[in-house]
Amino acid sequence: MSERPKTVDQLTPKPNQHEENPWVETLKTFALSAVLALGIRTFVAEARYIPSGSMLPTLQINDRLIIDKVSYHFSQVKRGDIVVFNPTEVLRQKFKDAFIKRVIGLPGDTVEVRRGTVFVNGEALSENYIAAEPDYVYGPEIVPEDQYLVLGDNRNNSYDSHYWGFVPRDLIVGKAVVRFWPPQRLGQLAPEPIYRQD
Predict the structure, then answer these.
(1) What is the pLDDT of residues 22-43, one digit of tens each?
(2) How far is CA 174 from the centre of its chain?
(3) Could you give the residue numbers annotated as active site?
(4) H/E segment holding residue 152
(5) Are 144 and 38 within 8 A, CB to CB?
(6) How far apart are CA 11 and CA 118, in angstroms?
(7) Domain locations in the chain?
(8) Contact, 125 vs 117, CB < 8 A?
(9) Strand ranges in 125-183 using DSSP code E only, listed in sequence order
(10) What pLDDT, in 10s, does the model give residues 121-136?
């Protein structure tokens, strides 16, 4: 004997007697969104803005950037990378906000600035991204293990490693990869420069 066909009533799910208040549902949605946003900001990427002219002409004041916080878990910091880092012990005496600079010296490198040129391991760097040649003398200094020497592209108006020293690896937050504001300059930052000794 064939089974009796199900009626429409039998196919329609019964209303849930324990449906939550719409306000509770909304609150849960906002809470989940906040947790996801915090997780992304903490572990994946975050937005930062440029408050000073120390990275001119590469980065303009009030540029908004996306900082990649994942890549350095799988790859090494490279010369030419533009990095965001938390203040070093020396900087913490006056500053609490993160800094953004370009990596010039890698662990073990000997860095020197003279005659308007940066030398790494005795080789002059070709730097077409700086505002002007540095008008100061620095080094030679050897970059310690697990630390980096960073300089602003606006060499003569940047409070950077030539003043206060090196950045420990564990203070580097991530790498600046994309400018999302202003709209007319939206896009990836210029690719890392290619240096002869790399």
Answers:
(1) 666 665 555 544 444 444 444 4
(2) 4
(3) 54, 101
(4) none
(5) no
(6) 77
(7) 46-188
(8) yes
(9) 138-142, 147-151, 167-168, 172-181
(10) 999 999 999 999 999 9
Q: What is the homologous superfamily of the domain 46-188 according to CATH?
A: Umud Fragment, subunit A (2.10.109.10)
Distance CA 161, CA 102 (A): 10
Token pair 């003043």 is at which residue? 163
- What distance in Å separates the CA atoms of residue 131 and residue 54, rounded to the nearest whole number? 9
Interior CA angle at 111 toward 109 and 114, to 5°? 160
Residue 154, token pair as written in the block: 């606006």
Over residues 126-151, the mean pLDDT reads 96
pLDDT of residue 49: 79
Q: Which of 105, 95, 64, 68 is nearest to 83 (CA)?
A: 68
- Cα 153 to Cα 150: distance, rounded to the nearest angstrom: 10
